[in-house]
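Budget justification note: compute hours in this period were largely spent on complex prediction jobs such as the one shown. Inputs:
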Amino acid sequence: MKYNWNWGIFWELSPDATGTYLATLFQGLRWTIATGLSAWLMALVLGSLIGTLRTVRNPTVVRLGDAYVELFRNMPILVQMFLWFFVVPELLPTGLGTWVKQLPNSSFWTAVFALGFFTSARVAEQVKAGIRAQPRGQTMAATALGMTTAQTYRHVLLPMAFRLILPPLTSEFMNVMKNSAVALTIGLMELTARARAMQEFSFQVFEAFTAATLLYLALNLAIVLFMRRLERFVAVPGFTAARDAVAAAH
Amino acid sequence: MPMIEIHKISKWYGSFQALKECSTKVNKGEVVVVCGPSGSGKSTLIKTVNALEPIQQGEILVDGYSVHDSRTNLPKLRSRIGMVFQNFELFPHLSITRNLAIAQMKVLGRNKDEAVERGLKLLDRVGLSAHKDKYPGQLSGGQQQRVAIARALAMDPIAMLFDEPTSALDPEMINEVLDVMVELAQEGMTMMVVTHEMGFARRVADRVIFMDAGEIVEDDSKEQFFSQPKSERAREFLSKILLH
Ligand SMILES: Nc1ncnc2c1ncn2[C@@H]1O[C@H](COP(=O)(O)OP(=O)(O)OP(=O)(O)O)[C@@H](O)[C@H]1O
Ligand SMILES: [Mg+2]
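Corresponding output:
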């Protein structure tokens, strides 16, 4: 195979005239980050809620939470993305469906929703494990002091649960960034889509994907460093026991 | 005047009956020790007093309020009954000061300064002022249990429940916790204490309850229990425990 390396390609103008190829890649990176971060926030909020509900006493609530997790975790993310993008608008009342389809950046919002739900199921699983990892006595002590169930979760169970699950949450955070590449299938011009476009226009496939790879690596490195700092920031002095319990459960 | 009145309560875990028509009373200022073999229902009994465990039959009155009545404001009632657990159960992510203050603030609605002041006063009482900024994981078991007692006392309880407060401790730490409890008892706190520390019972108990297989087999004055227990089971239990 004869391949013409051309690292200078990044400074050439892309044919869609929005700037250099490098600029288009960075534009893609911005969409990747915007999509990943929004989906991550949604996943954290929903996942914490669902994960918490799966540990309460009411069996109906627990079953609903379990069903949610099974549904969103077991369906491939690609299928979910297609469902949200192509199927759900058709199921809505006609007026609403049309409005949704014509929303500006509709592929962005769809990607955020699809990734948000998918990731929330995985976060919910971790949150549940984090709550379960704590000794039953913690709940009893809080209850005996007169705390309500909500106060017990808010002040006793969840603060420790989140500390315990920070390492798996770091991987989920990185996953949501990587998974956002699936959104190119519904037309979102995120990083992978930009790299593909660059390859199609310039035929410099290796340069395009080397650059994309490096940008993904840098993004994940930033996430890891941020989460490490966070871990150190919230570390509990003198605490070791429950962390071992979670590690053993994995 | 009875502070805690337990009237013919029965409790089942599924089909297994853990408590069988148990009745007893703890008067204001009285110290009652509960003992018995493992699995006899001591923890279950003491946890029914603040409704940590539901019951299926009978009634419990604390300060005249029916604990298991659906109209009772349970959080409020529980906040007035201190409880100390075998494994301390301090909140590991909170400093000692925050451990002492959190329930005062969230349950009793005290403001932060008030809660911290009250908490530190009790921390001083159990001799641990120097550790107020540490975290539970940085204290020894005995110290953690003393903090747990201070945390319960900070709520200004009308009675205290203890479930084997010294059985998770290394022998050299048992006395520092028992000393705090003895002092409490001598100050007139109403106490229900599950323990196998018969020395403690001899010193401060007014009565001793002996349980076996979910039943209250003996409910005697301390003198009677140690000198001439009525049942064979209690005699057997005592001879075993005093040998150890
Ligand atoms: N959550 C539960 N589910 C089912 N059975 C239980 C539960 N908790 C306790 N039991 C059973 O009820 C009985 C009484 O238990 P309890 O913990 O009150 O005993 P105990 O006297 O405190 O024993 P120990 O000295 O070992 O603490 C035991 O047979 C125990 O197995
Ligand atoms: Mg017990």
